[in-house]
Structures are given as C-alpha cells and as structure tokens.
Design goal:
The complex is a heterodimer. By secondary structure, chain A is an all-alpha fold. Helix content of chain A is 87%, strand content 0%. In chain A, helix 1 packs antiparallel against helix 2. In chain B, 41% of the residues lie in helices and 17% in strands. The longest helix of chain B has 19 residues. The chains are: A mainly alpha, B alpha/beta.
C-alpha cells in the first residue's frame, strides 16, 4: 500500500465519522446523507483497489484514468446540485405559503380580539 | 372520570376514502370508560379532503404545506399532549385500518397496558397481507429491528398504533417526519418503553396511493435502514 492510499483512507474515515456525527446530532437528514455516504464508500473502494480505476477507464474507452474520475465526479456533482436546487425551491415555496398563512391568521386573531373588546 | 382517547387520522389526498372511514368511526359505540375525540390531520392535501371532513363534526388540524406522514401524526400527538389525552390511536386515512379494530386495540391496552401497542396484520395471518416484495422488505426490517432492539415485532411498518401518555409525550418531541414507523420503534425501544403487538384485520387501501412506490421502495429500504441505525446510536432523552 502506498502513502497516498493510506492518507486517502484516513481522510475518508474522518469524513465518514463526521457525516455520522452530523446525522446523530440531527444536523443532516438521512436522505441527504445517503449521497455523501455512497461517495465516501466509492472513494474508500478505489483507495483500496488502485488498479480499479485503470480497469474501469479501459471498459469505458477512456485513455487516461484520471479523466474518468473528473468526468464522473463533475457529472455527479452537477446532478446533486440540481437536486439541491429542487429541494431549495420547494423549501422557498413552503416558507412563502406558511408566512402568508400566518399573516392571514394574525389578521383573524386581531379581528376577534377587537370584536371581543367592543 | 372517563379516559380521554384521541383518534388521530393523518390524511393526504384521501377525499375518496375519508368519508366512509369517518362514518364508520362515528357509528362505533365506545364504552363509558372512554371519552373519544377524533382529529383529522390534513397533510397539505391538494384535493377536497378538508371539505369532505368539514361536513362532519370533527376537529381538523389543517397543515398548510405537506410535511410527510410522520410530521402529520406528530401534529396529532402534540395536540394530544397539549390537551392531556391519556391514549392516542393512529388510524390511517386510506381505509386500510377498519375502525372496529380500534376496540381490539383498546381492549389489548386494558388487559396488558403497554406504552405502545402495534396493530399487526401478520400475527393471525388474516385479512390483507400486502404484496410479496413488500413482505420481503418488511421481513428485512423485522430482522434489522430485532438486531437493534433485541425485540421481536411482526408488523413493524404498521401505522395502526396506540400510544399511552408516556409515548405521547416522547413522540411529541421525537418523531421522524418521513417513513416514521420502523424508526420510531427503535426510538421507543431505546427509551425503554414497553411495546406489544395485537392482531388486527387490515384491508387493502380504499383509495389514493401508497406513499411508497416503484423506485422509492429501494430508497425506502436504504433510508429506513440508515435512520434506524442512527436512531439506535442517538441518545433519546
């Protein structure tokens, strides 16, 4: 095993541990954690099996193995970003709806209070 | 003093089945020991669920946005907690849980008081049993649950549940908002609660769609496994 592999495995373990901590503390929802855990597992897998990259590159017909890493990671990151944007849009819509609902309810409560006072 | 019982019905787009369920529910004669109140929690339905329910004289908690079945049930449990109910029973709004079976749950609680009682469709193998793939998933979750909680439950995905006062107060604070059933069992077991099962009959859903379909069945298994595992590690207090 080479130095770089050990370093990567070490960093990976810390990342995995940190993700687990975030979930336990309730700061990360499990559905988002799935993507992160899958990524760390993939990294872990290829840091143990270094030749795996070359083998995969050959299968896909890519000359330089690192290019496979770049291509696939850019693709995954783009998809994940899109997913986050969708989630974000939904959150914004929900917050707008909630805020409006509260404003309307406040008005009703105030109306009731002034009726009671009168 | 009669025991205050709250029946919580979470609803998401159940305009087709909810009226029948409420009619059946209102016809039931509960013994004088109980004072039963029904609350429908509308989880941001886009159809006429609220209008249908408004025709009955029933409390509605109308959530303005969809927060998931667990969040909806928790809203009902919070209502139970704030209004000092001793027992809360969750009955799904799609008609899978025949209202008459509520009497069985209450009787089970009387005979053998537990913090949580699960209405199980698998103990007596009668009535609706769900599809093969689903039962396979349930079997896996059953096994995972046995490892994590050291307890054997048969129908761990059943949403037909009775909560006592202690369970209400815990679930009012900790209850997962998505796919809550298996995960909440781990939470309850960790809190040292007594959990028991009682056989009930279930029907196939009367209308609407399951919240778990197609690809999401795979996602469901992964997500629930993760959630159960982390609930097991997490401290509950």
């Amino acid at each position: 095993m080479q130095k770089i592999q050990i370093i990567i495995i070490f960093i990976n373990s810390i990342l995995l541990f940190y993700i687990a901590r975030l979930i336990i503390k309730g700061k990360l929802r499990e559905e988002y954690a799935i993507a992160w855990i899958v990524c760390t597992i993939l990294l872990m897998f290829f840091s143990f099996w270094r030749n795996g990259l070359e083998v995969l590159a050959k299968i896909f017909g890519i000359f330089e193995a690192p290019n496979l890493v770049f291509i696939s990671f850019i693709f995954i990151i783009l998809i994940y970003l899109l997913h986050l944007s969708i989630v974000n849009t939904k959150l914004q819509k929900d917050i707008t709806k909630l805020t409006q609902e509260i404003a309307l309810m406040k008005q009703k409560v105030r109306n009731n209070e002034s009726n009671d006072a009168a | 003093m009669p025991i205050k019982v709250l029946i919580i019905i979470p609803c998401f787009n159940e305009e087709k089945s909810i009226a029948l369920l409420l009619e059946e529910l209102l016809k039931i004669n509960f013994s004088n020991k109980y004072r039963v109140e029904i609350v429908v929690v509308n989880d941001g339905s886009q159809d006429k669920t609220v209008e249908v329910v408004s025709q009955f004289n029933i409390t509605i908690l109308d959530l303005p946005v969809n927060i998931g079945i667990g969040g909806a049930v928790q809203t009902g449990l919070k209502y139970a907690f704030e209004n000092d109910f001793e027992i809360a029973i969750q009955v799904d709004g799609d008609g899978q849980h025949p209202p008459m079976e509520i009497l069985k749950m209450l009787k089970a609680q009387e005979e053998n008081p537990s913090n949580l009682i699960i209405g199980s469709r698998f103990i007596s193998k009668e009535g609706f049993q769900s599809s093969l793939l689903r039962r396979l998933g349930i079997f896996y979750l059953h096994w995972l649950n046995k490892i994590l909680t050291q307890k054997k439950f048969y129908d761990i995905t059943s949403g037909f549940r009775l909560f006592d006062k202690k369970a209400i107060s815990l679930a009012a604070r900790f209850y997962p908002d998505e796919y809550p059933e298996p995960e909440s069992l781990v939470i309850f077991a960790k809190a040292g609660f007594s959990i028991s099962e009682t056989p009930v009959l279930m029907k196939p859903r009367q209308g609407g769609q399951s919240s778990i379909r197609y690809f999401s069945q795979v996602y469901y298994i992964i997500k629930v496994s993760l959630a159960m595992f982390f609930s097991y590690i997490r401290k509950v207090n």
